Amino acid sequence: MIEFHLDTRSGVAPYLQLIHQVRNALRLDLLRQGEQLPTVKDVSTGLAINPNTVLKAYRELEYQGLVAARPGRGTFVTGTLDGPRLAAQEPLRRELARWLTKARRSGLDEESIEALFLATFRSTAQQEDIA
Amino acid sequence: MTALHTSGLGKRYRQRWALRDCSLQIPEGRVAGLVGPNGAGKSTLLNLAVGLLAPDTGAITVLDGQPASGPAQLAKVGFVAQDTPVYAGLSVGDHLRFGAHLNPTWDAAYAERRLGRLDLDPGQKAGKLSGGQQAQLALTLALAKRPRLLILDEPVASLDPLARREFLQDLMAAVAEYGVSVVLSSHLVSDLERVCDYLVVLAASRVQIAGDVDALIASHHRLIGPRRDPATLPSDQLVIQASHTDRQSTLIVQTRHPVLDPAWTVEQLNLEDLVLAYMSQAQDGRTAARPVLEVQR
After folding, report:
1. pLDDT, tens digit, 9 for 90 and up, residues B15-26
2. In degrees, to the nearest 5, what angle opens at C-alpha B271 toward C-alphas B267 and B272?
């Protein structure tokens, strides 16, 4: 079973952190189909966070088709995040590596590359949110 | 139903208003955090809610009843006053007997189970307990009466970090298990960020902002960009805080719409930034001309 943690300095909303951790565990095969997520009460008590926050994360994961709530029994993993996604990663990784080489050749140091990546990542994510 | 409903609520101590024009609607089923500087009126509001104080202006209802209007109302509301007071000369067991005697809805099994888990010796005098244990005893008493609303005034202020975490864990367990609504005041915004889904900022005796935490976070942004007069912003962007250098402006704005102006770098605020922005705005005394904001989900 997965154990959640919370990084309060990250600025990422707690419910999003829970979602990320489940998605990460699925990607890394630490959580598999049929396995149960900790109960809302256990997560809420363990981390000292509002139960509604946990519920919200679980509802969102349900909406993403990754888990399903079985009344009276708990929340279970029903989806996976491997397969086509992993296969698609390799070409993307190579493209990114090429881009990084290009960025270094243009004289950008690591800090500038990171800042550029984050700024672009955020602005495109924001545009997708609005769209 | 609302856990706490106030309209135009005010309380005056001689010439000084401790709380003014306070209008709030905290829904049931929430954990609401009450935050603000010392002397902002937090304890006054909580004492009004439990009927220890009577208002000078306006109205207050708690779970649709008048505070302390009778046994039924008293049974609905659990209260832990500032610094989690216990009777120093009474034993832990005496506290439970006392609680059972005074509360018709007392859940003795719950109280004993809880104290057992906390490893509190029933024979021990409450005055000899550590601060954390006293807080846990006070919380146990408030929870064992099975209230629908729990009101806590700075329950963790005097606790060390571990005791604080344990207290909040137990509080969240009660919320998850019994669905008890909570209103708690605290200075520790990082704690509130974990446990609260509703926030009220009180400063200078007035409500500065109140609303669902996620809605508050989603509707506030930090804008950083070339220097600009805040008066030239779109009318849907309300400036909470502004600071300027020769060439740069940093603004905290409240808006329901996305900020699309490409001149701005838009940053998310965390709860602490948001609370501080409203508190310093109140300190600057610019609130009188501004209507109180209420952000709903």
Report:
1. 899 999 999 999
2. 100
Inter-chain contact A11–B197, Cβ cutoff 8 Å? no
Q: Are B185 and B43 in contact (CB under 8 A)?
A: yes
What are the C-alpha distances in Å from A28 to residues A23, A24, A32?
9, 6, 10
When CB atoms are compared, the residue of A13, A48, A126 closest to B195 is A48
**Which tokens go with B186?**
């605290």
Taking CA B227 as the corner, what is the angle to CA B226 and CA B230, rounded to the nearest 5 degrees? 120
Q: Tokens 């719409």 — which residue?
A: B257
Q: Residues in chain A, how many?
A: 131
Q: Which residues of A touch B224 (CB under 8 A)?
A: none
Q: Could you say which of B172, B190, B217 has the minimum Cβ distance to residue A13?
A: B217
Separation in Å, CA B68 to CA A99, B102, B103, B274: 68, 14, 14, 34
Q: What is the pTM (predicted TM-score) of this model?
A: 0.83
B153 has a pLDDT exceeding 90:
yes
Give the C-alpha distances (Å, rounded to integers) separating A100 from A86, A91, A106, B3, B111: 21, 14, 10, 55, 61
Contacts of A49 in chain B (CB under 8 A): 172, 194-195
- Answer whether A41 sits within 8 Å of B173, measured CB to CB: yes
Q: Amino acid identity, residue A102?
A: K
Question: Does ipTM surpass 0.85 in this model?
Answer: no
* Distance in Å, alpha carbon of A128 to nearest chain B alpha carbon: 12
Q: For B270-286, what is each residue's pLDDT tens digit? A: 899 999 999 988 887 65
Give me the total of CB pairs closer than 8 Å, taking one residue from chain A and one from chain B: 54
Question: Worst-scoring range by mean pLDDT, B1-5, B36-40, B77-81?
Answer: B36-40
